[in-house]
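A quick word before the example. In earlier lectures we treated sequence and structure as two separate objects. From today on, think of them as two lines of the same record. Here is HTH cro/C1-type domain-containing protein written that way.
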Amino acid sequence: MTNTALSRTERARRRCDIDDLVAIAAALGIAPAALLPLGPSVSHAAPKTLDRFQEALLG
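And the structure line, produced from the sequence above:
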């Protein structure tokens, strides 16, 4: 995933397809389901996951 694609996904200007979700999860070393919301509210782990996501993809 390029920096541009990542940025557009983060800003909701690009869809996050299943292929992207699987690639992001693999980069983080977690199951793809861990990136999906559990219900109406977002878990408190989301900021940590986003930080790990950016670090894994951007170095």
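Notice the following. The mean pLDDT is 79. We will return to this example when we discuss secondary structure assignment.
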